[in-house]
Structure formats: structure tokens, C-alpha cells
Amino acid sequence: MKKLAKQISEKDNVATCVADLKKGETVTVRLHGQESQYVAAEDIPFGHKIALEQINAGDSIVKYGTVIGEASQQIMKGEWVHRHNCLDTYEVK
Asked: In sequence order, what are the beta bridge partners of 31?
């Protein structure tokens, strides 16, 4: 069965997994009818994010075409993006 992840915007550097991924599994990311394949560098739970490119410490995490956080450490393509490597930069005004 094909594992899928959803990329919302071409600006996104992460995609949301719509199935649990095990390390080494291939996931197909869809965006505007186009598909790209990525290999999970580690286990990634359903509903969590996979990095679509290398993201360096301090770089923005982009989902929905907008910044949702900042990388607290280097995140390699295919790695799980979550609280262990992503800082919340949301500020209530």
C-alpha cells in the first residue's frame, strides 16, 4: 500500500503524513496533482510532519505557506519534524 503525505503549498518545507511511517519506508508527497517520493529517515507518526529538504538550525519551518516555527537543530530531508527539533515562534499580540 502506498504511503502518502500532503504538502499544502509550494513554499512548504514539510509535509503532513497521512499514515504511520517506519524508518526506510517511501512516502509519496502530493502537491497540485504532482507526486514526489521521499524516504523516512526515522519513524514518523500519522499526522506529523516530514522534512522535504534539509532545514538548518534557526531556519523557518513552513507549512500552509506560512512560518509555523523554527528549527532548533539541523533537520535532514526525510526526518520527523516535531517538538524535539522545532521551536514554536507564535507570538500572541
From this structure: 34
Rounded distance between C-alpha atoms, residue 16 and residue 50, angstroms: 6
pLDDT confidence of residue 90: 72
Q: Are 20 and 44 in contact (CB under 8 A)?
A: yes
Q: Global pTM? A: 0.92
Dist. CA 8–CA 18, nearest whole Å: 13
Q: How far is CA 4 from CA 14, 31, 36, 64, 68, in A?
A: 13, 11, 10, 17, 21
Query: Would you say 76 and 51 are in contact if contact means Cβ atoms under 8 Å apart?
Result: yes
